[in-house]
Amino acid sequence: MNTNQITASVPTKCDLLVRADVVVTQDTDRRVITSAGVAITDGLIVEVAGYNELEAKFQPTQRLDMAGKMLLPGLVNGHTHLPMTLFRGYADDLPLMEWLEDHIWPVEFQLTDEILSIGADIGCCELIRTGCTAFLNGYFHEYITGDAANAAGLRAVLGEGFFHFPSPHFPTANDCWDTIRTLDARYDKNSRIRTAVTPHAAFTVNPDELQASFQLATDLDIPWQVHLAESPVETAVCLEKHGKRPVELLRSLNLLTPRTTLHHCVDVTDDEITALAENGVNVVHNPASNLKLCSGLSPVQKMVDAGVTVGLGTDGASSNNQLNMFRDMALAALIGKVRHEDASAVNAQTALDMATVNSARCLGWPELGRIEKGCPADMIALDLGSPNLMPMFSPVSHAVYAATGMEVCMTMVAGEILYLYGDFRTIDVQALRDNAFSAVEWVRTKAKK
């Protein structure tokens, strides 16, 4: 008898074996596998293949039968302000600058840690429910969002926001540097929480502060993110203050690099797109927010064609009213076609790439956004029994155009199930509802009269 044959027939142990009708891997080859399975050990994906093949190969400690379901990588929200769920529906139907200056900023200056925690918890709950497993954040007192995400089991990249004028936390931008270092050290050993350096925008932070903050990001070896070219109004302000358009200003300061992630990039020229591509800059598209604030339609397909990595974000729930990446995927594809007058622009695969592998690169976390051997086991499942997902010719098309996010029936991070068939396993939803009522009353009392 051949000893090698006996050894080869012994199943390999794994922690979890997941079965599904379809797995959309988002791997390098963009494989879509039917009658599929995923083997997981120590929070990492060991193998993705046909279920029968994995069943014969592995001896799992646990099994998860997702028959009738489609597995996708956990979606990655490339730009949000999680605690701004506090302002969902508070100041609607207003242009960007009026919305910020007359409504949002006056209340933000009065935020407390307790209220911020409620907003962050609500945001985590919504992300989990709609299949998002990682996000790039920018706000104040970021350790609160970090602790909320950590407790909920999500991944996050935290950016402590600052301006050149006094903010809710800092008298000046330079006062933020120590806080950023402290925040980075706080999560240094945490596998799910990372940090970024986050100046607000080119028109709200002085050039020398932009450069100093980028040097800090370089020293800490973390991403540097900023709102940029969000609207023609921002461009006009930037021209008046600095004599340069936003992209040109950053280029003159040597801030267009692969470490850089720019949010929005609505008002950009062809030459500026070329500069973004040549310098390896990441861009996050925020279609719902751009539409609601009437900021404009970003030339996404032009950026993709030029070689720019374009991710996808919801922005905050105050300028989107949702943190639902499925809605933003659909909007990105639909308005991309109108923006370029081309029905093939921003196709379904491009939109799904934006919400997964591309957003992961915008977070500086490229191993996320894919179901692939060696990558973290961050996955979600859609219920294919939902009427709006019947019949199915293309899983990718369904994920982008047909799904709403409410078909998500399972959300997993690092092999840990956070949500399954209506059961939130890391969040007390009833307590969260009670806290949300308190938050409404708090915002009303602080609103500008």
TrEMBL record:
Q: Does the keyword Ubl conjugation apply?
A: no
Q: Which InterPro entries match?
A: Amidohydro-rel (IPR006680), Deaminase_MtaD/DadD (IPR023512), Metal-dep_hydrolase_composite (IPR011059), Metal_Hydrolase (IPR032466), MTA/SAH_deaminase (IPR050287)
EC number(s): the record gives: 3.5.4.28, 3.5.4.31
Q: Where is the Amidohydrolase-related domain?
A: 70-417
Reaction(s) catalysed (UniProt annotation): S-methyl-5'-thioadenosine + H2O + H(+) = S-methyl-5'-thioinosine + NH4(+); S-adenosyl-L-homocysteine + H2O + H(+) = S-inosyl-L-homocysteine + NH4(+)
Cofactor(s), names only, from the UniProt record: Zn(2+)
Q: Which UniProt keywords apply?
A: Hydrolase, Metal-binding, Zinc
* Co-factor binding details: Binds 1 zinc ion per subunit.
UniProt: substrate binding residues: 108, 200, 230, 315
Where does this protein hold Zn(2+)?
79, 81, 227, 315
Pfam families for the chain: Amidohydro_1
- In terms of superkingdom, the source organism counts as Bacteria
Does the keyword section mention Transmembrane helix?
Answer: no
Concerning its family, UniProt says: Belongs to the metallo-dependent hydrolases superfamily. MTA/SAH deaminase family.
What job does this protein perform? Catalyzes the deamination of 5-methylthioadenosine and S-adenosyl-L-homocysteine into 5-methylthioinosine and S-inosyl-L-homocysteine, respectively. Is also able to deaminate adenosine.
Would you tell me the protein name for this molecule? Answer: 5-methylthioadenosine/S-adenosylhomocysteine deaminase
Q: What is the lineage of its organism?
A: Bacteria, Pseudomonadati, Thermodesulfobacteriota, Desulfovibrionia, Desulfovibrionales
Q: Which gene encodes it?
A: mtaD
